[in-house]
Amino acid sequence: MREFVTQVLSATRSTASAMARDLHGPRAEDPLAERDPQFIRETLPGLGRLAKLYFRPKVRGLEQIPAEGPVLLVGNHSGGTLIADTFAFAYSFYDHFGPDRLFHQLAHDLVFQVPGLAPLRKYGTAPADHQNATAALAKGAALLVYPGGDHETYRPSWHSGEIDFSHRSGFVRLALEADVPIVPVVAIGGQETALFLTRGERLSHLLALDRLLRLKVLPIQVAPPFGLTVLDFPGRIPLPSQITIQVLPRIDLRRRFGPDPDEQAVYHAVTAMMQEALDELSAERDLPVVGTLGSRHEESEVVEDLEHGGLEREVETAIEDESPGQG
Question: Which of 137, 194, 256, 257 is an S-S bond match for 70, by CB 3.0 to 4.6 Å?
């Protein structure tokens, strides 16, 4: 207990200090340069243990991610701007690989307009744009992207068990341009950290937020302490929903799909695999927020199937569906 308190206090001091300096100090021109292995090393024990206490995360399959070199991690996005599954995954990633393993996560530009969020940047978070993505991969980083963006992260809570990238296949082009493998990362539980009611896409369009802030949603959710919130304002505390994350086998695109992969075939294969994994995770949950009651066999049948012929079947099906003459 004493060790836990010491670690949490140390992480709190370092985080508060970084936030305070961020309110007044200059920022680096290159957002990727703000990742700080020493800060991660200092805060990971405390922040990681807090996350484990609050969200009780189960992160499986980290061994699917290469220990070095560039790789594109493609995740489903949940939890609004308070993305509990991203925090849980980042802490587990650094705990598994160590703070020196290059790792970046892309987030909406709006996050970087808020002063005081230096700790996120020190953990590797950078604005979501093509330049940052290609630069991170060129440096040899593991790069986590969320193709579904705000469209997916603010989906209604009753659609928690759906992969919804809204047909955004840019991640496929990115992987092909950089010639890096894709590793899907599937999570559940984030959409139970609040009761998400609506994306508010029409309202966002009427207020021109899509043009002014690149914000295509104006979501409404119910959460403590204020009850009803809009775009997480005036603020909310995420419910302590149990988070489960499954990392799927890596996909080497040109080896699996041929020398000139069809972008839509890759998109459909990746999202189909992720949906199968999310269906499996959904079936494991006994109660919302509480998650799984009792012990479960942690070996994923979906992962086992993908490793023993299932991946080839998904690829063949996706290629056939995108072939000329197929409906």
Answer: 137
Closest CA to 40 of 81, 85, 83, 101: 101
Q: Angle at the Cα of 18 (from 13 to 23), degrees rounded to 5?
A: 125
What pLDDT is recorded for position 314?
A: 87
Which pairing describes strands 71-75 and 142-145: parallel, antiparallel, or unpaired? parallel
Tokens of 293: 């009651």
Q: How far is CA 86 from CA 76, 89, 195, 245, 301, in A?
A: 10, 5, 19, 10, 24
| Overall fold of domain 2-193+238-322 | Glycerol-3-phosphate (1)-acyltransferase (3.40.1130)
- Residue tagged 């029409």 (tokens): 202
Contacts of residue 167, defined as CB under 8 A and 6 or more positions apart, other chains included, come to: 267
Please say if the pLDDT value at position 281 is more than 60.
yes
Give the pLDDT score at 88: 95
Please tell me the predicted confidence (pLDDT) of residue 263: 96
Could you give phi then psi for residue 11, rounded to 5 degrees? -65, -40
Helix, strand, coil percent content, the chain, rounded in steps of 5: 50, 15, 35
Q: Own/partner pairs for 109-117, CB < 8 Å, 24+ apart?
A: 109/213, 109/214, 110/81, 110/213, 110/214, 110/215, 111/81, 112/31, 115/22, 115/23, 116/19, 116/20, 116/22, 116/23, 117/19, 117/22
Residues 6+ apart with CB under 8 A from 184: 73, 74, 75, 247, 248, 251, 270, 273, 274, 277
- When pLDDT is averaged across residues 138-160 and rounded to a whole number, the result is 95
pLDDT of residue 18: 87
How confident is the model at residue 324, as a pLDDT?
Answer: 67
Q: Where are the domains of the chain?
A: 2-193+238-322
